[in-house]
């Protein structure tokens, strides 16, 4: 089983702010670079000090916003930290979100190639949600795409969604990459995804989010 790192914070009343809301706010105020730098540093420290827990995981995925990939200092920080090789690189994945915010695709692709050389993997998130998804699939050296949840939530009853998911899976497999579907919340949708050739699923039907301290 592979796990994705999701970030939440508590508000002034002690309630958890949903990850999506928190991320949208950070992007609006141009703070995603600082957030992503903190998450990368924290997760690498956690991996280094929890080798036993890490052995039981297939991998750990960290989200990286397209906004952050425009920050040369962040990319240098990541490469410097990871090149020390104090954690198993083959278990580390980076999911690129908000890819449309990337200013220079060629530079980001070069950075990804360098990271892949030391063992990291990449996933293109929110696939299908924007007109430029196929452009980034072509230009960025990703290992996997994550189908946007909007195509999955009604999969068991919507023939159009099934046709689109099948098309995405066939195309991505033709390119030698793998496919994961997000927001899979019932067994009926999971069964349909299996029949359509999707490789992996993420969502409440698999496991609900929990604190990293519970591992």
Can you tell me the overall shape? Answer: globular
Helix content: 40-55%
Counted by DSSP, the helix tally is 8
Query: In whole angstroms, how far apart are the ends?
Result: 13 Å
Element order: H for helix, E for strand: EEEHHHEHEHEHEHEHE
Mean pLDDT: 92
User: Oligomeric form of this entry?
Assistant: single chain
Number of strands: 9
> Rg to the nearest angstrom?
17 Å
Biggest beta-sheet profile: 7 strands, parallel
Assess the beta-strand content as a share of residues.
15-25%
Structural class: alpha/beta
Q: Strand order across the biggest sheet?
A: 1-4-5-6-7-8-9
Low-pLDDT segments, ≥5 res = none
What features would you describe in this structure?
- The protein is globular and about 45 Å long.
- The strands form two sheets. Strands 1-4-5-6-7-8-9 form a seven-stranded parallel sheet, with helices on one face.
- The model has no long low-confidence stretch (mean pLDDT 92).
- With 215 residues, the chain is an alpha/beta fold.
- The chain has eight helices and nine strands.
- The longest helix has 18 residues, at 32-49.
- Helix 2 runs parallel beside helix 4.
In short:
The protein is of the alpha/beta class and about 220 residues long.
What topology does this entry show?
Layout: E1 2-5, E2 9-10, E3 16-17, H1 19-28, H2 32-49, H3 51-55, E4 59-65, H4 72-83, E5 92-97, H5 105-117, E6 121-127, H6 133-139, E7 144-147, H7 159-174, E8 178-181, H8 187-195, E9 200-201
Parallel strand pairs: 1-4, 4-5, 5-6, 6-7, 7-8, 8-9
Antiparallel strand pairs: 2-3
Helix pairs in contact: 2-4
């Amino acid at each position: 089983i592979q796990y994705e790192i999701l970030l939440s914070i508590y508000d002034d009343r002690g309630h958890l702010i949903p990850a999506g809301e928190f991320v949208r706010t950070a992007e609006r105020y141009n703070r995603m670079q600082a957030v992503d730098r903190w998450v990368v540093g924290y997760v690498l420290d956690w991996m280094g000090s929890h080798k036993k827990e890490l052995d039981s995981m297939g991998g750990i995925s960290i989200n990286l916003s397209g906004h952050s990939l425009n920050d040369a200092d962040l990319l240098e920080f990541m490469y410097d930290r990871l090149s020390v090789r104090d954690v198993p690189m083959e278990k580390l994945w980076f999911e690129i979100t908000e890819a449309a915010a990337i200013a220079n695709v060629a530079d980001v692709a070069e950075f990804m190639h360098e990271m892949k050389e030391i063992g990291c993997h990449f996933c293109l998130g929110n696939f299908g949600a924007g007109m430029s998804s196929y452009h980034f699939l072509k230009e960025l050296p990703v290992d996997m795409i994550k189908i946007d949840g909007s195509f999955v939530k009604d999969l068991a009853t919507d023939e159009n969604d099934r046709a689109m998911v099948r098309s995405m899976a066939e195309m991505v497999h033709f390119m030698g990459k793998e496919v994961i579907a997000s927001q899979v919340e019932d067994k009926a949708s999971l069964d349909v995804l299996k029949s359509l050739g999707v490789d992996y699923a993420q969502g409440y039907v698999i496991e609900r989010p929990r604190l990293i301290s519970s591992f």
